[in-house]
């Protein structure tokens, strides 16, 4: 079953409209959607390594634009939309204390969340809610999201065939490690 799902994802990742789907997922993930774009980014690059830089660029641009939407949610609609999202992610506790310190370290928070598995949407919403300088937010977002997606693209572009071969030979192990890391990250983030 895992093999069929993997093959289906790789085949779909090469679909002519996959870039649009990646853009939509990247946009949504930065403001409200819980699934990271890496789940489509990686197989898309493996399926078409000659398009690695375009794929990473689209993912970065859409993610930053989605971050602006998240910023707008926090700035204009924190009570109506932002708080329910943060509550659903388990990140609403301590918001008042966070707000006091956030603007002092906001650029670093955006950089850190944009690169790490920490939900970037939490930082985009909180950046708007605390009225972090929009230029600071944009520059930090472009750097962080660009680093994240272009490093992945570069590694897959440089080592794609061996990585793909390893994944295909050790699919069960790779899938298990991925799930453990994914659920482990959610568990750790839940209690931060």
What report would you give on this structure?
The chain contains 9 helices and no strands. The chain is mostly helical. The protein has one domain. The mean pLDDT is 79. Pfam families: VTT_dom (PF09335).
List SSEs in N-to-C order: HHHHHHHHH
Number of helices: 9
Radius of gyration from the alpha-carbon trace, in angstroms:
17 Å
- Low-pLDDT regions: none
Broad shape: elongated
Based on the model shown, name its key terms.
192 residues; mainly alpha
Summarize the topology.
Layout: H1 2-13, H2 18-29, H3 38-47, H4 52-76, H5 78-88, H6 95-115, H7 120-129, H8 134-169, H9 171-190
A few lines on this structure:
This protein has 192 residues and is an all-alpha fold.
